[in-house]
């Protein structure tokens, strides 16, 4: 739980959205925050798409740019709020014509293309449940999720259809329509563009109860088979509030969220939150490339940037020189999510990008950011930050299986500084998942004694900052110590040769488990025996008893498509065990 203060305080203190944390928590109420949203006209409830586009399209922001799309050839196309409202209205009308009804599931299998925004918002207007899939999924994970969710309609591209959908279409009996982007129908598909052109742009959103289902998001599958977390329209209240508090977002911002649209971050913050604020959303069709990303930040004058540790680590591998060629003066706030953010990355942000990286924590199930380092508060490198206003977090004493110990239906909350327990949240925030689709039992099992149990292990310091230790499934039990992989990985990353590390437990007759590290090296560091011994010694000096006993070099650590190191796969490979569900594994180039 050690941290090094970074030279300067976070630079936006004086004009940040949240300047007095204690007061904001004390005075907070979701009911009061609701006044920042409009609600449907005539008191007909709350609809995410109305808050995101229609209300702006009817007000003074109608000609403000909602979406600025950069295609893979760097061409920029802009859509105002009015245009986005109109196009999504057309898609909602089209769904009606096709007989797709409220509550039906509409899936997308799309990269970052304008149609994605039109379809997601249009389907929400029509009261359908939207489920975005990673466009990099192969046919089998696509089939599995379409069937799990009982998809009625899918929107994809002609190419993705040919490669991933055509072959499995017959084994998804619920799927009534497949629409493909562009102008041409194909076998079993209808073209989206002419259908949109023919549909009415004037779509009146029907009455929508805040508890009506809206989004179905599959988890990253880091620890096992992905689960479908169901969210409701009320979630928009949390998207709206958390973006202001944790991302310091304002209506004047140019906001770029790099998350893939197939992951919950790609919807909550890649679509809904910035639009709910009336800000300008940047969407980049291109793949990750250090120079490309810097040039998007510079050319689009991005002011708030939300990204992930794996991307930051890749930028770090490219060195500070690459960054120095770009004008990043518009950048006011940088945040990261999805995986533990190593302290090096926070400091690197401050030194190389001129802003520290603000880590924050949440899950598919929580629907929105729950714990964060705030703009106006001290950033503690290595910490996830403190709970947002409106969010009550706690740490629960753990049992032998590593999860919270439940005795006669009761749990025990840990209150001492530095104690380590399962991170839990008090249910009741608007974007909390309302079900695991088709698995009510599993859903109910995630709650105990008035808490939602997250499956993550954390510590809290005396000032209330939370420190991620590991997923309950990843924590290593070695010679009487419980070792969090993140702590070991971060210690190794402080060595100049180490670009990334994945740490797992390996059964050992004496210690129970021993700590084994897989290490990716920076360019220019050959994987020699000498370096390996140096790293082992480096680890021992930093970590003592919990240092890795074995180190292997691996230039291609397995990642999920949302960018997380898949430690369970490293472990399975090490032990020769079955590899389990690999549908979300990022294919290695
Ligand atoms: P699955 O539940 O299928 O195993 P997953 O948990 O990776 O997959 P997500 O909901 O995408 O699926 O990810 C949420 C998890 O990511 C958190 O529970 C936590 O383990 C990790 N995580 C997210 N943000 C952070 C963070 N800032 N620091 C550390 N870990 C984080
Ligand atoms: Mg999870």
Automatic annotation (TrEMBL):
PROSITE patterns to which the protein is assigned, alphabetical: AMP_BINDING (PS00455)
Keyword annotations of the record: Acetylation, ATP-binding, Ligase, Nucleotide-binding
UniProt key word Acetylation: yes
Enzyme class at the top of the EC tree: ligase
Signal peptide limits: none
EC number(s) reported in the record: 6.2.1.1
Residues annotated as domain AMP-binding enzyme C-terminal: 487-564
Family annotation (Gene3D superfamilies): 3.30.300.30, N-terminal domain of ligase-like (3.40.50.12780)
One Gene Ontology molecular-function label: acetate-CoA ligase activity
UniProt superkingdom: Bacteria
InterPro entries assigned: AMP-bd_C, AMP-bd_C_sf, AMP-binding_CS, AMP-dep_synth/lig_dom, ANL_N_sf
Residue intervals of the AMP-dependent synthetase/ligase domain: 54-437
Keyword Nucleotide-binding: yes
Protein name per the record: acetate--CoA ligase
Gene this chain is encoded by: acsA
């Amino acid at each position: 739980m050690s941290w090094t203060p970074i030279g300067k305080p976070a630079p936006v203190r004086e004009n940040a959205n949240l300047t007095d944390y204690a007061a904001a928590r004390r005075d907070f109420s979701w009911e009061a925050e609701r006044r920042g949203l409009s609600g449907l006209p005539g008191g007909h409830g709350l609809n995410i798409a109305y808050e995101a586009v229609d209300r702006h399209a009817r007000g003074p922001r109608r000609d403000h740019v909602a979406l600025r799309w950069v295609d893979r050839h760097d061409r920029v196309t802009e859509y105002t709020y009015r245009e986005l409202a109109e196009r999504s209205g057309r898609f909602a009308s089209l769904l009606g014509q096709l007989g797709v009804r409220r509550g039906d599931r509409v899936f997308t299998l799309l990269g970052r293309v304008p149609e994605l925004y039109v379809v997601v918002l249009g389907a929400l207007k029509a009261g359908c449940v939207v489920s975005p899939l990673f466009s990099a999924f192969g046919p089998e994970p696509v089939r599995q999720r379409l069937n799990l969710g009982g998809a009625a309609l899918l929107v994809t591209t002609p190419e993705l259809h040919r490669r991933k959908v055509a072959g499995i279409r017959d084994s998804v009996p619920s799927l009534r329509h497949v629409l493909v982007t562009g102008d041409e129908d194909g076998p079993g598909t209808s073209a989206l563009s002419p259908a949109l052109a023919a549909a009415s742009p004037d779509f009146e959103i029907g009455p929508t109860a805040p508890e009506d289902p809206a989004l179905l998001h599959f988890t990253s599958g880091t620890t096992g088979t992905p689960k479908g977390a169901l969210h409701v329209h009320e979630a928009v209240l949390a998207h709206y509030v958390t973006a202001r508090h944790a991302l310091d977002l304002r209506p004047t911002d140019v906001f770029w969220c790099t998350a893939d649209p197939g992951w919950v971050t790609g919807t909550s913050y890649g679509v809904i939150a910035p639009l709910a604020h009336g800000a300008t959303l940047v969407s980049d069709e291109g793949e990750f490339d250090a120079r490309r990303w810097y040039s998007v930040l510079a050319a689009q004058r991005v002011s708030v940037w939300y990204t992930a540790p794996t991307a930051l680590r890749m930028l770090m591998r490219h060195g500070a020189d690459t960054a120095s060629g770009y004008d990043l003066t518009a950048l006011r706030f940088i945040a990261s999510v999805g995986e533990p953010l190593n302290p090096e990355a926070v400091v690197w942000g401050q030194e190389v990008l001129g802003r520290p990286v603000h880590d924050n924590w949440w899950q598919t199930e929580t629907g929105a950011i729950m714990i964060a380092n705030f703009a106006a508060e001290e950033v503690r490198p290595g910490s996830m930050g403190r709970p947002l206003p409106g969010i009550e977090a706690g740490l629960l004493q753990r049992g032998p299986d590593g999860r919270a110990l439940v005795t006669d239906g009761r749990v025990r909350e840990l209150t001492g500084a530095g104690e380590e327990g399962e991170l839990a949240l008090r249910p009741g925030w608007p974007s909390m998942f309302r079900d695991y689709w088709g698995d009510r039992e599993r859903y109910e099992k995630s709650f105990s004694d008035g808490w939602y149990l997250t499956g993550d292990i954390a510590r809290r310091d005396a000032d209330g900052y939370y420190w991620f230790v590991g997923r309950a499934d990843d924590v290593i039990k070695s010679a009487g110590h419980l070792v969090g992989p993140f702590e070991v990985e971060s210690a190794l990353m402080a060595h100049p040769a180490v670009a990334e590390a994945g740490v797992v437990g390996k059964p050992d007759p004496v210690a129970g488990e021993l700590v084994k590290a897989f290490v990716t090296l920076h360019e220019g560091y050959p994987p020699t025996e000498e370096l390996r011994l140096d790293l082992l010694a480096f680890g021992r000096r930093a970590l003592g008893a919990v240092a890795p006993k074995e180190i292997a070099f691996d230039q291609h650590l397995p990642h999920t498509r949302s960018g997380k190191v898949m430690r369970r796969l490293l472990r399975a490979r090490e032990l020769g065990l079955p590899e389990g569900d690999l549908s979300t594994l990022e294919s290695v180039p």
